[in-house]
Amino acid sequence: MPEQVEIDLTESTEAGLVQTLFQENQTLREQIARHTELMQLLTHQLATPLTALSGSVHLLAETDLDAEYRQEFLGVVEQQISRLQNLLQDLMALRNAETGSLEAKPSRVCISQLVDEVVAGFQSHSHPIAYRIAPSLPDVWADRWQVSQVLVNLLSNAIKYSPNREPIEIGAEVVAPGWIQVWVKDQGLGIPEAAQPHLFERFYRVKHRDRQNIEGTGLGLSLCKLLVENQGGQIGFESTHGEGSLFYFTLPATGS
Question: What is the distance between the alpha carbons of residues 178 and 67, in angstroms, rounded to a whole number?
Answer without folding.
Answer: 59
